[in-house]
Specification:
Layout lengths: L1 H6 L2 E7 L6 H11 L8 H6 L6 H11 L6 H17 L2 E8 L2 H4 L5 H19 L2 E9 L4 H11 L6 E7 L11 H9 L3 E6 L6 H12 L3 E4 L7 H10 L2 E4 L1 H8 L4 H10 L2 E4 L4 H4 L3 H12 L3 H14 L4 H17 L1
Parallel strand pairs: 1-2, 2-3, 3-4, 4-5, 5-6, 6-7, 7-8
Helix pairs in contact: 5-7, 8-9, 16-17
């Protein structure tokens, strides 16, 4: 089964590029940029990637970003992820990036987006993996800062397929950013939002994503299953879920495998993704393996995850169909 997973054409839709900063690259960038770190070796840096909650994870996550200062840094970061993803037969990825995590440190937006964009173009040419960028707003910053970031992105509109919402959800409901998302929609951006698992007021936040923000899909979001009305509405709209089982297990001690099983049984468009793989020690193949082992899934169910992902990807219909044909041919021959 691991060999089947390894060879299967894949689509990843929930991946934070800042969360792919492996300790080895982090230490190289720190040396290159003369950034003083609180540890001296790669091993010590890896030991620092430890946490027991979403909040404690975010503290270390943002601290690590201090080594990202120049356009080549962002190029190297994205190239490292895309190289790894291509090695796992990821054919297409939609990559979150957090510009406010960098502009708030004085790193210009232009440097961030140009480094990422150049990596995306080179990866398609050299590695055969296609990718698009999704710009996320940090929900623990103000709505005004989010709007300013949105406006700053407009000269690069053709390089960014959509916008999202991430970071600490506590006391930061989606409705806080309603005007920002309305303007993003006017500018032609597609919309997603994190509905992190087991957060306070989670059902109300998911409802706001549906009825106020009007999201095109939901990141995480498994708590929707606890509310029949929410589940029915999501199914009616055909919205997909970008679920990250290994990261679930780190931040809540529960991979939410039972919820993933139920999503499959209900015919919901659930997908499997890696979230922040440098921190959770699992890229997309390892996440699929973890779910397969936990639930005893067969090949058809594993293929369904990828079929769902290609179906809800922000791609033209003809491009989706080409990826789906490749997936079906693999499933028939493997």
């Amino acid at each position: 089964m691991d060999a089947f997973i390894a060879g299967m054409p894949k689509c990843e839709l929930h991946l934070h590029i800042e969360g792919t900063l492996e300790p080895e690259l982090k230490m190289r960038l720190a040396e290159r940029n003369h950034v003083r770190m609180p540890y001296r070796t790669v091993e010590e840096a890896r030991d620092a990637y430890k946490f027991d909650s979403l909040t404690s994870f975010l503290v270390g996550y943002y601290e690590s970003m201090n080594v990202l200062l120049t356009e080549p840094d962002f190029y190297d970061l994205a190239t490292a992820y895309l190289t790894k993803a291509a090695s796992q037969n990821v054919r297409y990825a939609e990559i979150f990036f957090d510009p406010q995590a960098h502009t708030s440190r004085g790193v210009p937006f232009d440097l961030v987006i140009r480094g990422l964009r150049r990596a995306v173009l080179d990866a398609e040419r050299l590695l055969g993996i296609r990718a698009q960028l999704i710009m996320c707003f940090l929900r623990d910053f103000s709505a005004e800062y989010a709007m300013a970031t949105l406006m700053e992105s407009l000269p690069y509109r053709e390089w960014i397929v959509g916008v999202g919402l991430d970071s600490d959800e506590r006391d930061n409901p989606p409705v806080k950013f309603a005007k920002v998302f309305a303007r993003a929609r006017e500018e032609g951006y597609l919309i997603t939002a994190h509905c992190d698992i087991d957060q306070p007021n989670t059902h109300e936040h998911i409802r706001q994503c549906l009825d106020v923000i009007g999201v095109d899909r939901i990141d995480h979001g498994s708590n929707a299953l606890e509310d029949e009305e929410l589940t029915a509405e999501i199914a009616r709209r055909g919205l997909g879920f970008t679920v990250c089982p290994v990261s679930n297990g780190f931040v809540t001690s529960d991979m939410k495998a039972a919820e993933i099983r139920r999503m499959l049984d209900l015919g919901l468009k659930v997908t499997i993704n890696s979230d922040d793989p440098a921190y959770f020690l699992a890229y997309v193949s390892e996440n699929l393996q973890a779910v397969q082992e936990k639930l005893g899934l067969g090949r058809d169910e594993l293929v369904q995850f990828e079929r769902n992902a290609f179906e809800i990807a922000w791609l033209p219909r003809a491009t989706k169909d080409a990826f789906l044909t490749e997936l079906d041919e693999y499933a028939a021959s493997a």
